[in-house]
Every structure is written in structure tokens, then in C-alpha cells.
Amino acid sequence: MEKQKTAVIVGVSSQDGSYLAELLLEKGYKVVGSIRRSTAMVHENIEHLKGKIILEAADLIDQESLNRVMIKYQPDEVYNIAAQSVPGDAWSHPFYTGEVTALGPVRVFEAVRHFAPHAKVYQATSREILGGVKGVDRANESTPLFANNPYGIAKAYAHMMINCYRESYGMFVCGGILFNHESPRRSLHFVTRKISMGVACIKLGIQNPPVNELGEPMVDAQGRIHLGDLNAMRDWGYSKDYVEAMWLMLQQEKPKDYVIGTDTNYSIKDACKAAFDHVGMNWEDHVMSNERLLRPTEITDMRGDYSLAKKELGWEPKVFMKELMEIMVDADIEWLKSHNVK
Length: 342
Ligand code: NDP
Prior knowledge:
This protein has ten helices and 15 strands. The protein is an alpha/beta fold.
């Protein structure tokens, strides 16, 4: 009988970490998930997994905590999903973003190098490392790095370290250059979830909606959702599809970086239309662009050309923007009802 594999997911409470944990459990792994220590210890995305996975406290700014996990579990695979992951917050917290999102992965690589050197490592890279590239419609693994915001620059540093650890120490480290991916577990800081939660609140006539990252109700007193640049374009896929690509990368003989996207591009307006259409309402009556939510620099329009992943991993996206928005709106309607939000 084959020995049970052990995987460590750093940042298991994240959208991706929680779906990845489910996938690895299905595949028979022993799953160790790291969470940041907190007093509340409430992690909505993984409440249903408690008892099925092992939880350990570790922080990307605490080398010792990462070392301890590697020493204790000697994992076969390590997935670093954790980051200060909100590009919008990176302008107001550039130092913290650098500490966590740029240096944090290097701490994971060091912990593996010293204490679990046989482990294969996945690092969550982002399409934001290509943020400002001009004149490229479809990005692939050869597109030159050109990050243009503090989050993207932090991710670009970590991305370059992947190759450094491969070349310098012969480590098996893969970078997933992932385009935007969403789900009902996406945090309320992100535009797709602002739309889906806003639509759900408006549809149900909620009087006390959840609050956004500015601490303001997600739907204002006039029944409007506040967003940034409505013309910004994104390649949106489904988180549940994307975690399969992460796992596949670590099943290969050689470590490599892969672009993961849907090769489609839609505007924020398109996403609003898909979500409001789903509940039979007109998006233009309920959405406004709020200057305070504009990014100081936007990323350029680009689609994720996933042909290498298709060829070598046999991976393809299954869910595209319209269906994704419908899944999210339905889930938020259910969430509001089950949490008795009025
Ligand atoms: P989330 O925003 O859902 O989660 C981020 C995770 O990082 C949370 O588990 C959070 O813990 C954890 N975290 C934050 N700071 C620290 C720290 N100092 N130490 C340890 N853990 C920490 O992420 P997603 O699932 O959306 O994304 C997963 C990864 O992929 C991230 O690295 C993100 O930057 C990257 N990415 C995401 C894309 C997307 O569209 N979703 C696109 C491309 C890349 P806590 O629960 O305690 O806050």
C-alpha cells in the first residue's frame, strides 16, 4: 500500500487554502493547515474542516513558527497560499505587504530547505507581477515581469526567489502565476464579492448589510453598491478549479511556473450585469463608481494564456465569469438567510 502523503497548507483559512484542503483530503492526504494565531479563532472558510485537518499556528513573519511545522510533520508537499493578499490595501500598508507577501514566502522556502528538504513547494504567485506590461493581450510564462503596485512588486520578489531556490539549492518549487479567481469564499474586500453580496442584499431588501473594508455598509441607504473603476478588465476564474492546478504542478517530475487563467477578459460592468441579470434586476440602477475606491495605478488588460498548463498538466478551467457570478450571488443569498441578516 502506498504511504499516505502529508501536505502543509500555509494559510489554510484563505479562499484557496480551504478548497485545496478539501481536494487533498479527497485524495487521501494528511492535511496540516497553518493559521495565524488569533484570540477569536473563527475561520469561516474552514469551520466545516475542523476535525478533518490538523491546525497549527504559524505566521509568515515568524520564521520559528514555520520551522516548527516542517520539523514536526516532515511534509511531502508544502503549499504557501498565505499573503497580505489585498492589492488595494498594499498602498496603505506597503511595509507590511513587503514583510508578509515578499519575505514571507522566503521564510517558507528556508523552513523547507533546512527542515524538510525533500518537500515539493507551491508558491502562490499572481498575475499582478505583470501588472503594468503594455501591448500584451495574452500573458504566458515568458511575459516579462512588470509589477506596478506594492502588492505586485512584493509578489514579484517572491516569484524571483522561486527560481533562485530552484537554481541555488536544487529545490522543487513551483510558482502558480494565477489570474483572478473567485468563489463564495472570497473575502468581502474584493470586487466580485462586493458585487455578489451587494446584489444579494438588494434582492432580499436587507436593511443592515455587512460592511466593506472602509467600514461602510456594502449597500448604501440609496440601495447602491460602491465600486472603483467600472471599466477595469479582469480574467476571472473559479478558485475550486484553480486549486487543482496547484496540486497538478506538484505531481510533475520537474518544477516549473505555470500561468493559470481562463483566457477571457471582462469588465467590472460585465460582472455587475451578469450578477444583477441573475436576479432579474438592472445593474445600472444600483452600481456607482466611488473615487475613493480607485487604485492609484491600474493594471493593464490581459488574459491568462494557460496553454502550457493544458499541455503539461492537462488542466483547463471549467467555470467562466457569468456562471461564477451566478454561483456567488446564489451563495450570498443563502448566506444572508442562514445568518438571519435582516
Ligand atoms: P485570501 O485573501 O482568501 O487569504 C489570505 C490568507 O493569508 C489568509 O489565510 C490569511 O490568514 C493569510 N495570511 C495573511 N497574513 C498572514 C501572515 N502574516 N502569516 C500567515 N498567514 C497570513 O487569499 P486567496 O485565497 O484569495 O489567495 C490565495 C493566494 O493566492 C494569496 O497568496 C494571494 O495573494 C494569491 N493570489 C490570489 C488571487 C485571487 O484572485 N484570489 C490571484 C493571484 C494570486 P487570515 O485568515 O488569518 O487572515
